[in-house]
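Quick log. Single chain, no ligands specified.
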Amino acid sequence: QVQLVESGGGLVQPGGSLRLSCVASGFFFSRNVMRWYRQAPGKERELVAAITSAGDTSSVVEFAKGRFTISRDNAKNTVYLQMDNLKPEDTAVYYCWGQGTWGQGTQVTVSS
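-> predicted structure:
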């Protein structure tokens, strides 16, 4: 059974940082591309970042460049999203994706 479990969300002030984690089980994690998406209230889900199976190549979308970093630890079946200099518009539910499966999401709220 493929399962993705996110954690690390919360309430943070503008300019703050959070690190999201996603632990995978039920599939060969180290053979799969992993992605982070987010969905803000009233908006469609959008891609945030992606990383190759070996972790040697990664990319983030334009709004995240210079602020967000995706990484993975294949020994721990975990993918991370480090988010720095957070802005109120980053408020959303953040989802992990892999092997055609979504996690349950973790809420990130950026507010003073």
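The two ends are 40 Å apart (CA to CA).
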